[in-house]
Every structure is written in C-alpha cells, then in structure tokens.
Specification:
The chain is an alpha+beta fold. It has one domain. It is 17% helix and 27% strand. It is built from 1 helix and 4 strands; from the N terminus they run E-E-E-E-H. The chain has a 4-stranded antiparallel β-sheet with strand order 1-2-3-4. Strand 2 and strand 3 form a beta hairpin. The chain is flat, with a radius of gyration of 12 Å.
Length: 64
C-alpha cells in the first residue's frame, strides 16, 4: 500500500514542546487505514506509518 503523504492534513501533537523549546515536535496525520507520524522540524526525512490498530496500541502503551 502506498500513501501520498504530501496531501495529508498534518497536525502537531498537543504534547509537543510544552516547555517552548521547540525541541520535540511531533505531527500526525490520519488516513482511512493508517496514521502517519513525523518530526515537524524535518518533515521530509521520513514518516512512521502505522495501521489504525497499531496506532491504537501505541497510544495505549505510551499512556501507561
């Protein structure tokens, strides 16, 4: 499966750079079947693409 990441609506995580340092900026974008995650400071250096079920698992584990 190929996903055109240039057309996605990226949004910055509300948890990114809460200290104002701009050092930890994560953006996410949803598609029908997956969630893409990237570093907003380097958006062209690649993205992590997870199926929706993988994203749900990731969130569950990281909230512990």
């Amino acid at each position: 499966m190929s996903t055109d990441l240039t057309r996605l609506a990226w949004r910055k995580s509300s948890w990114s750079s809460q200290d104002g340092s701009n050092s930890a900026c994560v953006e996410v974008a949803n598609t029908e079947h997956c969630v893409a995650v990237r570093d907003s400071k380097s958006p062209n250096k690649g993205s992590l693409i997870l199926p929706n079920s993988g994203w749900t698992s990731f969130l569950r584990v990281t909230k512990m």
